[in-house]
């Protein structure tokens, strides 16, 4: 199996259009996950984010701030 860091490094050297195409295909591949696998991945992500907040590597953002920024970006 390929090393994810190496795959990412290679992908980042692609043009913006090619990176977008790769990202689209990767995201579409997640649609094929069964419910159990999707739940497992979301749980892992939630734990990772909790750890980042607990260790101060990331800070939580209020949902109202996120909504305000999204509205501003979509204008």
Termini separation (Å)? 43 Å
Beta-sheet strand percentage?
A: under 5%
Number of helices: 4
Mean pLDDT: 93
Q: How helix-rich are the residues, as a percent range?
A: over 70%
Looking at how many chains there are and whether they match, the oligomeric state comes to: single chain
Major sheet size, sense and barrel closure: none
Number of beta strands: 0
What global shape is seen? Answer: extended
SSE order, as H and E? HHHH
**What is the number of independent domains?**
1
Q: In terms of structural class, how would the helical and strand content be classed?
A: mainly alpha
What are the key terms here?
0% strand; 75 residues; mainly alpha
A few lines on this structure:
The protein has 75 residues and is mainly α. The protein has helices spanning 4-12, 16-30, 35-54, 63-73.
Summarize the structure in words.
- This protein has 75 residues and is mostly helical.
- Helices cover 73% and strands 0% of the residues.
- It is extended, with a radius of gyration of 16 Å.
Outline the secondary-structure elements:
Elements: H1 4-12, H2 16-30, H3 35-54, H4 63-73
């Amino acid at each position: 199996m390929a090393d994810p860091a190496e795959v990412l490094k290679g992908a980042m050297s692609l043009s913006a259009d090619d990176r977008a195409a790769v990202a689209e295909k990767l995201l579409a591949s997640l649609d094929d996950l069964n419910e159990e696998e999707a739940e497992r991945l979301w749980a892992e992500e939630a734990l990772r984010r909790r750890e980042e907040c607990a260790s101060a590597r990331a800070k939580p953002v209020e949902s109202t701030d996120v909504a305000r920024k999204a509205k501003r970006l979509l204008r």
